[in-house]
Amino acid sequence: MFNIYWRDTEYRTNKMNHTFLEFETTHFQDDNMTVNFTMTFVEPYSIGLLRKKSDRIHIDVRDGFNYTDLFVGNKSEHRLTTFETKTRLEMIFDFRNHYMKTLRQIAARMYWVLIAIILIQFAALTLRGVGLLPVWIFIEYL
Q: Are residues 78 and 36 in the same domain?
């Protein structure tokens, strides 16, 4: 019924529509207009990077699809208001992805490493009797 794909920020140069590793509808709402779904990307860590231009998901009705066969009742009353839509993909954190899980663990460990570096630098500068300006500059740059 639908073509579902996403385009990255480099679409103007590569003209590539990316597919999903998995696309699964999880729940149909009671209003008969809303569908919840789960998408699995091939490389979720490269989606929605902080840029002015954004990656977008596109959902289009397939060409030649007769959507009036889906409705019950007077078919002339039913029509789709649009045949295509797109929305911005925010930064995605897929914790099921092994690569992203590993990067998150490294980031959590590096947090404690930076705290240790600051404390060691503070202690070393205090013992030497030097001012603490390098510590404050280091913290400022972080």
A: yes
